[in-house]
Write a structure and sequence with these properties.
heterodimer, A: about 200 residues, alpha+beta, Peroxisomal Thiolase, Chain A, domain 1, 8-stranded mixed β-sheet, 7 helices, about 35% helix, globular, B: about 80 residues, mainly alpha, Non-ribosomal Peptide Synthetase Peptidyl Carrier Protein, Chain A, 4 helices, about 50% helix
Chain lengths: ~200, ~80
Amino acid sequence: MIDKFHIKSYCHIKNQTISVNGNALFCDESEDFSTFIKNAYKFLKTDYSKFFKMDNLSKLAFLAADVLLKSENLNEDENDIALIFSNRASSLDTDRKHQAAIENDAEYFPSPAVFVYTLPNICLGEISIKHKLYSENSFFIFDRFNAEHLQLYANSLLRSGKAEKALCGWVDFDENSYSAFLYLVGKEGEIEHKTEEITRLYNIL
Amino acid sequence: MSELKEELKAKIINQLNLEDVSVADIADDDALFGDGLGLDSIDALELIVMLDKDYGIRLSDPKEGKKIFESVQVMADYIGEHRTK
């Protein structure tokens, strides 16, 4: 018999609002992402000294993941939760900043702190460090949200015993336009982990 | 020298994105790495770029940074002696 998996919780961050399981947790009137995410960080009492050194994509992914994982009573030493993220813009927001710093030969001073974020999967490392995740992680680039891929990939990892749970979803940032939708899937939960339900939750707000 | 130290503190806070830290919070002799401000290896690289960009000092060996970035006082002394701009 093939194991079935369920979505235990999910989080959206978009339109200046953070929602968990469809319920608004934090709203802010700041239209500027930097102000919004800083206010959210403080409201959520997130404790991670490196947060303000991250790029915008990592801040977005980190907070969305933190909202879900902080209520999981995670082990302090190691946790078997895979990360399967995706987006459309990759790390373009940070790539542009790096490009601006290197296009003038006379003022060629690229910032190491910017350069290290010129890959989208760096945000997975930030989350893994904070929550002690040593399991599989992948970041995919798609034209649009791809529920089928997330479902197949997560189920494959869970069925093969590569992870106990998987945190999956979409985190996209480009030019102050942002959107995050993450969900936690495993053996517990009420919502069946199937493409129709993933798509429904993605569009719920 | 006092002006340079204040300038360095402001630059460190701004360029290294030190949230909730003010110039007044950093003493001249505070350790910048380890138990002090808690800066990391990427911060050290940022400081090397800052020396080059703002003061015209290019470190030939990045390992030199370990001593130069010991504190704001040590940085200011080094910059005062070696700056080209």
